[in-house]
Amino acid sequence: MIDGLEVHVLVVDDNVGIRDTTARILRSVGYTVTEAEDGDVALEELAQNPFDVVVLDERMPKLNGTEVVRILSPGPPPPVIMMASIYTFDLDFRQSLGPRVFKYLQKPIPPTLLIESVGEALDSRRDRDA
């Protein structure tokens, strides 16, 4: 809960250790976190529940992070923080996803950077929605 409002974050990663650690860090600062193990489950969650931010792994079996971002329904989707083990986010890749991805982070992500990035994404969403 931030400023009396519940903040709901979707964490998507096929690696259970990384997913659990990411979720634990975000819960420690008061966010409500839902976890998804792949892109298919992420899209199901996004269709059924409102999320304020999505923290999304790029490399996953089935649907990867890029495919999830491209499939997101039209309209203002939640800000996406894309993460990858290897820094492959070159300019062409970033431009191909357009403004739907708020930030790109390389794993392992330091807890302070993760918390800061989610906070920035929330601020950006508030500005967009205002």
Molecular structure report:
43% of the residues lie in helices and 20% in strands. It has 130 residues and is of the alpha/beta class. The chain has one domain (8-129): Response regulator (Rossmann fold, 3-Layer(aba) Sandwich), CATH 3.40.50. It has a 5-stranded parallel sheet, sandwiched between helices. α2 packs parallel to α3 (65-71). The longest helix has 19 residues, at 111-129. The two termini are 20 Å apart.
- Regions with pLDDT < 50 over 5+ consecutive residues? none
Number of domains: 1
Measure the end-to-end span: 20 Å
- How would you classify the quaternary structure? single chain
Name of the CATH class: Alpha Beta
Outline type: globular
CATH architecture: 3-Layer(aba) Sandwich
**Estimated radius of gyration:** 13 Å
CATH H-tier superfamily: Response regulator
Number of helices: 5
For the sheet with most strands, the description reads:
5 strands, parallel
User: Could you tell me the strand content as a percent range?
Assistant: 15-25%
DSSP helix fraction: 40-55%
CATH topology label: Rossmann fold
What structural class do the secondary elements suggest?
alpha/beta
The counted number of beta strands is 5
